[in-house]
Write a structure and sequence with these properties.
Low-confidence stretches of chain A: none
Strand content of chain A: under 5%
Order of helices and strands of chain B: HHHHHHHHHHH
Mean pLDDT of chain A: 87
Number of strands of chain A: 0
Number of domains of chain B: 2
Radius of gyration of chain A: 18 Å
Number of helices of chain B: 11
Number of helices of chain A: 2
Shape of chain B: globular
Helix content of chain B: 55-70%
Distance between the termini of chain A: 36 Å
Largest sheet of chain A: none
Structural class of chain B: mainly alpha
Largest interface: A-B, 22 and 24 residues
Oligomer: heterodimer
Shape of chain A: elongated
Distance between the termini of chain B: 11 Å
Order of helices and strands of chain A: HH
Number of strands of chain B: 0
Low-confidence stretches of chain B: none
Chain lengths: ~70, ~250
Amino acid sequence: MAITIRDTAPRKRNVASLVGGYVIAGGCFVLWVLCASQLTQWPPSVPLIATGAVVAAGIGVWIRLADL
Amino acid sequence: MMSPRQAAFRAAYRAQIAPAYSGLIHVALIYLIGGSALWYAAQHIHGANLAEIAVIPVVMVLANIFEWFLHAKIMHRPIPGFMGIYNRHTLAHHQFFTEEAPYHDSTRDYRIVFFPPYALIAFLVMASAGGVILGQIWSANAGWFVVCTAAGMYMNYEFFHWCCHVRDDRIIRHLPFVNTIRRHHIAHHNTAIMMNKNMNLTYPFADWLFGTSDLNRGLLGHLFNGYQTRFIRRDLPKLRGGRPSALAAE
């Protein structure tokens, strides 16, 4: 079994980026739904809402990975 | 000229930036969120009268004072509950950028130039709450103008702050307002005055209003000062062994 020796401690992410990830994902989802409803109709279609959820989740995950 | 201490801080800070971080995505997110909020709010404004349009300059002034307050009383004060903001700004941003070396080198440095996007979400939520209240007690158009103007001022703030930390060139030094805030903000990075002077980052209105500017001149002079240094107050604290400002050196 191969052993990996780290010469530096693994980088720890800040808890702020975890909270921030959720906040930004939530905010982006709300904005997406509002803008989509403005461009189409209220309520927006299920595919539009699902796409918004995927985009918002992607942004939230990136915020966490980028530790922003 | 960058001091060895500043160079060491920059190297340590950059080593801590996550590999997944991208400065361009960071900026794109800020302007997509801010632009979407502004566009959505603007779609709801119909047949605004003069009184409703007057909400725009009023919110601009209030946002300017809020920006001054946040910078002077939160970002530069170690207040329990807000220590993360103090650490990020006073201890990190002000070590990364000094008056002698205030410029960023790459888009990865945007990590310490721009606010995290959740600050924009928090600001939009506060502005929306104000917009809802104004919409209920007076006019829906006025409420939507609050959201539009607040979103615009936030993006204005981020753009001007970025302009303060880009390298000088023959174009940027002649842009009205931008050249003013560049000199104003780079002077603020002087550690001798950073805790008390030059707290605005868009237009130095609140600094003029509250007497926290390093300039000794009127409001119009403050707004259109550009790179001029002849109006700088003589009674400012001096940094021992201080080096010249990056702008003065150029």
